[in-house]
Fold this sequence. Notes:
Layout: H1 6-17, H2 24-31, H3 35-50, E1 54-59, E2 63-68, H4 72-80, H5 91-104, H6 111-118, H7 122-137, E3 142-145, E4 151-154, H8 157-171, H9 174-181, H10 188-195, H11 203-220, H12 226-244, H13 260-273, H14 282-294, H15 301-306, H16 315-332, H17 340-358, H18 368-374, H19 376-387, H20 390-393, H21 399-415, E5 423-428, H22 433-446, E6 450-455, H23 461-464, E7 470-473, E8 484-486, H24 493-505, H25 527-530, E9 531-540, H26 545-558, H27 564-577, E10 582-584, E11 587-591, E12 602-612, E13 622-629, H28 637-647, H29 650-658, H30 662-670
Parallel strand pairs: 5-6, 5-7, 7-8, 9-12, 11-13
Antiparallel strand pairs: 1-2, 3-4, 10-11, 12-13
Amino acid sequence: MVCLNSRQIDIIEWLIKEFTPVSIKEMALSYEVSSRTIRYDLELIENWLSENKATLVKVPKKGIELKSICERDVLLEKLKFLSVENRVLSDKERIKYVVLELLMSDIPLTIENISNKIFLSKNTIMKTLKDINVYLSRYKLELSKSTKGGFYIKGSEKKIRKLQLSIFLDVLDSNNILKILRETIEYEDISDLILNYNNFIEIDDMKRFSEHLILIQDKYNYFFTDVDFIKLIFYIAIMVKRFYKGKKIENTSNLLKDTIEYNMSKDLINRIFESNAVNCEDGEINELAKYIIESKSFNTINELKELSVEEVADKKTIEITQRLIGYVEEKINVDIKDDTQLFNGLVLHLKSAVARVQNNSQINNIYTDYIKVNFPFVYQVVEEAIRKMPDIFGVDVSDDEIAYIALHIHAAYERISEKSSRYTALLICPEGISFLSILSTRIKREIHNLNLIETCSVYDYKQFKNNIDFVISTIPLSIEETDVVTVSHFMTNDDIYKIKQTILQLNKFRFIYKFSYDNIERKMLMLKDILKKESIKLQVEADNWEEAVRKAGDILVNENKVKDLYVENMIQAIKDLGPYIVIMPGIAFAHARPDETVNETCMSMITLKKPIEFGSKQNDPVSIVFAFGANSQGEHLKALQDLAKFLSVEKNFQMLINTKDINEIYNRIIN
């Protein structure tokens, strides 16, 4: 067997995900090691790949490329299950392996016990135990030592299960586990690998739990996204194993007996323990019911529009949804109150979101930064709306939860320009209805003649396969009889291109639906109306982004066009949402939401003596900063369109940063 260190594992992941050759020099620069070191790494990597039906191919004058008989995501999953004696664990991996060993052991473990189990020196184990203390504190747990010198994890049973679930979700890929449960042939060898770790997780049990959960979904007409389906299976597996070890959740006064989720939980537990005649107390049923409530339920989008929310949510959740939509409507001046898809989808989401917040089990959203940068005002308005409901959410709603709600709102915003008349594709997005809405709306906007059947579960393929031309999915799928186009969650231009090419192959027509703005019956401001020559300053000195934004904003303050507070709002928006204002390479467009701190629609511009980093990976450093304020909706649209068109030309950007004559700059911009 081959022993791989973290860099070698990282290189394998790189080559798996990269479909073009990578040079040794490029790898050496990336990892800051010599080319000789990389060549040695590649020798070990080649040995591991050969054991797993893959190899490295040298492409002359280009580099190294990975070729594999099996699917690439299968290789990625195999990397995760490298046994501890065949890999060099990172600090984070060591912590999680030791924590799992402590959780799964029936007795406290000594340093020697742990050392023998995960093949690490006693000194390394001692250092890791110190790190574990910090790690456990996040879950309000502690590492304790028995009188005989063994270590164990001390704390409430609920928090211990939450910790174990968190590790499983972090280590195991939900989509691949789902494929294993569906007994996909190419994932059988991964299943065998997991079975080697059956002290932690047992595939046969998970398959049995999966069958029970599917029956419960059908019985109660209450369906989960694939991601949350697997999360529930993991929790059930943990619950059962710990229950049989006598680690039970006692009865609690906070019972959910009057909810459908409690009945589902009770029914599910009875099915799981039926053969052993075990009677679970209400505490166990109640805790599983909480996880069910916190999970994202789904319907296809067509079903969502017909959903009677009164049957699936309480009056309080419906009222929260109405308040949230009302606040957003008022602030962004968009009529979305009659959008049934938004209202019903948001009711379902908030039902679980409120439960997560109140149970301190808030969701992890890896797309939060993207949402903040690309939909900043929607995010900001949603955040304000939630902060105004402390009686419901409290004050500690995470950015991740806010971002998911913002996705629902943004999807509704995009649907305003949506049109119909399409061919047919099955759109699969296991992450949930909010992402599904974004994908659906983008596709419908860009591809005119494509009808979509939207779903959050791959299980729906069999139901619709005879009614579709192809599949669009955010996860790789192997379907022999139907073309599958794999896309990202936010539907890039490359994804749109792939869909169009597929339609061409099927001899279908395709058209790109273009935005059309409603006619606004008010005077439209031109660029010359809001940007004055006196509002332009050149070669301004600033030490950081905040000072640069403040100096651009102060021009408008001194002209009595905005108040001091508006400048602070611009700066705070960047702190809250990140460098979303860096709209083009070298150009920042500072602004905040229209309110009473803006006296009139206005704009200023400064060029910087020295470029400044704003934190934008794509567009730093910044040489030009605009500050913009609007006191009404829509009237400045034409001015901003003209400015965007001007700035998109590279020679105009160069002119702005190199010219020292304000008159010349002003005349070029407004003309």
